[in-house]
Amino acid sequence: MGRLARIAAGTSLALAAFVAQAYTETSGGYNLPTGVTDLSKEVHSLHMLIFWICVAIGTVVFGLMIYSIINHRRSKGHKPADFHESTTVEILWTAAPFLILIGMAIPAAGTLIKMEDTRNADMTVKITGYQWKWEYEYIGEDVKFFSTLAAESNAARQHDGNGLLSGAAWAKTFSKDELEKLKKVDGGNYLVNVDNELVLPVGKKVRFLVTSNDVIHAWWVPEIAVKKDAIPGYVNETWAKINTPGVYRGVCAELCGRDHGFMPIVVRALPEAEYQAWLAKQKGGEAAAAAPAAAAPVEVAAAATTATDAAPAAAPVEVAAAPAAAAPAAPAAAKDLSKDELMKKGEQVYTANCSACHQPTGKGLPPNFPSLVGSKIVKGAAVDHIKQTLNGKGMMPPFKHLSDLDVAAVVTYQRNSWGNSSGVVQPAAVAAAR
Ligand code: HEC
Ligand SMILES: [Cu+2]
Question: Domain Cytochrome oxidase subunit II copper A binding: where (predicted)?
Answer without folding.
Answer: 120-281
